Amino acid sequence: MTNLTTMSGFLLVTFPGNPEVEILQASLFLVFYLVALTGNMLIITATAIDRSLHSPMYFFLKHLSFLDLCYITTTVPRSVCNSFMHSGTISLWECILQCFTFIFSGWAETAMLTVMSYDRYVAICFPLRYETIMDTTTCVHGVLAAWTSGLISGVMHTAATFSIHFCGPNVIHQFFCDIPQLLKLSCSNDYIPELGVSAFLSVVAFLCSISIGHSYTHIFSTVLRMPSAEGRAKAFSTCLPHLCVVILFISTGLFEFLRPPSDSPTVMDFLLTVLYTIVPPTFNPMIYSLRNKAMKTALRKLFKDRKSSLLC
Fold first, then answer.
1. CATH (domain of 101)
2. DSSP assignment of 53-108, as one string?
3. What's the number of domains the chain is made of?
4. According to the UniProt entry, where is the signal peptide (predicted)?
């Protein structure tokens, strides 16, 4: 029996005996990561520099993009390095840090999307009171609540996971320290605390989903009653990108949560993991930049200013 005090690390195995497939996977991961890095950094830069984007909606979007960067950086760069170096070893403390950061950024993003849905609800349903309700204090408190919830969730999940005893071999059939895979290495039923934490956080996630659904029910009800077609189009242009991001993030997470556990890893298990770890942070910036006129204008201005500075 091996426990936290004696185990030195784990072995991450994705495609055993297929170095060509492993290199192909690493190359695709690198492309996805560079796209996610570029897109989220552009949004962070645009919302920080462009004064027209200094509003609560883009204040939250800036933090969402930062969380997306944390979310994908936690897993992908290490996986790419391991694949190119043909070494899947990860130390115990690196695995602990990876689990904590992954859970922290994922749950903070869930909370941030909930806060953003409330912001859209106030903007559409109470436009005359929007600046009073969503003042600077409220926005800062919303962001702090999102980050704090992520921190608490990360500590709870990580502490419960690594309090269990692990039995060898210490092989994780995934490209990162995935908690469900770690639980398979448990020697006995001492993973019950982790299941309790998962159940509690699942309830919290369900409440967040209910809150988002409640906000958008009122939003669509209000928008559809607008007499002006231009007003409806403007309202949808600010709400639909956020709703698409919410659906993408929650649906991909549900794939992982609802899929039946398998004793022998399959390609489908790997693809489903990619679906909820890599797809959301990669495509979120595209959704916001393609559907949001203000964001597209700010990005064009950013590129124009950058081009002018290079010419000078």
1. 1.20.1070.10
2. G-SHHHHHHHHHHHHHHHHHHTTHHHHHHHHHHT--EEEHHHHHHHHHHHHHHHHH
3. 1
4. none
